[in-house]
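Structure first, sequence second, as always.
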């Protein structure tokens, strides 16, 4: 089979590695891929948002199956376009990807179907939003409606901050059109859990739970990033919480999407907060999380392509999806300065091949330049180790990090620490 994977980060690298385990896969095209993915797939310089070029390429190569991984092409309708060319796909159509593409949509959906989430108000009019935050309880959360590279959420401790957040989004459009509408939300407290799930719109199969570490610095200090590391499973996601999530959140969500005429097929990601009143939805994503995928897929025992094809054909119920016992940790090596300004083009140097070889290395922001691997993004590498226990997986990932470096490289020293304190 010839497979096309849209995207070019650590998540896509983890997906491609897993797809390659299926012996019927002869060829994988990555659009655009990256320097490390080039070792596992043929990288084609077509951007993940260039929908017409993606569809034309897929048709020209007569690919048998396509996986659209990032949010942007899904929200723009890449799956619809590929399906028009008769290419079976893993990923939601545009009318279902809106569950991530518009927070106003997802909040209204949850309200209508009684799915637990933070109370909120939605505003298209800046003056009304400003009047509302003047009286809202603090802290208050201000969110841009649309996609904003994971940065569209501002937690405001004071009224001045909240007013400034509303103005920045609605008046100054710091997130572009994504801020034309804002969601102002109640602040929730509790540990966060990421649950990725496979769903064909009827059946939903949660994957092993995970925990992201979104802030740049140790102790959850510093700016929000795309994610600085992950562990799986998440110790806060107990069997009791899992059962409640299935009843109160997962099944109601896919039923709601179906009832709205927007059946969701693909990977539905639940960003949850385990509050004193039970689990609540912080956000939905219409795709695999990054870097959650880099800990979840290495623990998957069942063949990924088999699952993905079953999802796309609406027969997920026929597949027995199994995960290994044990744990995984993914440590992200980032460019100095990320998530603010950072330099690119730094050569990646393996300082201890034996240590590095104990991790699965997923490339996020790398490129090939004159035959050498160099940095090309903020998050550069993800080092994943699996083991029987979380403590061993975390220790192994940190040990592997001693085997590779580049100028300015930094990583958090406390990935998994909170989970270990609670497991
Ligand atoms: P999101 O982009 O929706 O995942 O939000 C980014 C991060 O902001 C989340 O992972 C949470 O840590 C935090 N966050 C979002 N909404 C809330 C909320 N209502 N209460 C507390 N924290 C929140
Ligand atoms: N790691 C969070 C996300 O993929 O949105």
């Amino acid at each position: 089979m010839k497979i096309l994977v849209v995207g070019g980060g650590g998540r896509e690298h983890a997906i491609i590695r897993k797809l390659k385990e299926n012996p019927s896969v002869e060829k994988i095209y990555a659009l655009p891929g990256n320097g490390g993915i080039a070792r596992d797939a043929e990288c084609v310089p077509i951007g993940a948002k260039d929908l017409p070029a993606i569809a034309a390429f897929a048709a020209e190569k007569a690919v048998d199956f396509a996986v659209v991984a990032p949010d942007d092409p899904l929200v723009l309708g890449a799956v619809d376009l590929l399906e028009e060319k008769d290419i079976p796909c893993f990923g939601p159509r545009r009318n279902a990807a809106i569950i991530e593409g518009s927070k106003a949509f997802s909040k209204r959906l949850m309200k209508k179907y009684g799915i637990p989430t933070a109370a909120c108000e939605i505003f298209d009019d800046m003056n009304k939003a400003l009047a509302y935050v003047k009286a809202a309880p603090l802290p208050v959360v201000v969110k841009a409606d649309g996609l904003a590279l994971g940065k569209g959420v501002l937690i405001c401790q004071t009224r001045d901050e909240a007013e400034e957040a509303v103005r920045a989004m609605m008046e100054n459009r710091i997130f572009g059109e994504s801020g034309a509408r804002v969601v102002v939300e109640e602040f929730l407290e509790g540990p966060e859990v990421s649950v990725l799930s496979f769903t064909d719109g009827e059946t939903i199969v949660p994957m092993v739970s995970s925990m992201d570490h979104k802030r740049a610095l140790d102790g959850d200090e510093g700016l929000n990033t795309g994610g600085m590391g992950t562990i799986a499973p998440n110790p806060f996601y107990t069997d009791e919480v899992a059962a409640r999530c299935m009843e109160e959140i997962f099944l109601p969500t896919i039923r709601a999407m179906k009832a709205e005429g927007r059946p969701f097929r693909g990977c539905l990601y639940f960003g949850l907060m385990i509050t004193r009143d039970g689990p609540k939805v912080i956000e939905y994503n219409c795709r695999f999380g990054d870097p959650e995928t880099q800990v979840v897929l290495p623990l998957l025992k069942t063949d990924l392509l088999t699952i993905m094809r079953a999802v796309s054909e609406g027969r997920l119920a026929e597949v027995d999806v199994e995960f290994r016992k044990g744990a995984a940790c993914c440590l992200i090596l980032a460019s100095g300065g990320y998530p603010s300004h950072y330099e690119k083009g730094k050569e990646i140097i393996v300082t201890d091949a034996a240590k590095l070889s104990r991790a699965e290395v997923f490339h996020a922001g790398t490129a090939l330049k004159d035959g050498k691997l160099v940095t090309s993004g903020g998050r550069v590498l993800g080092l994943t180790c699996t083991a029987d226990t979380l403590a061993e997986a975390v220790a192994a990932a940190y040990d592997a990090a001693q085997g590779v470096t580049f100028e300015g490289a930094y990583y958090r020293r406390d990935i998994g620490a909170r989970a270990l304190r609670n497991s």
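Margin note: The chain has four domains: 2-89, 119-186, 192-318, 327-422.
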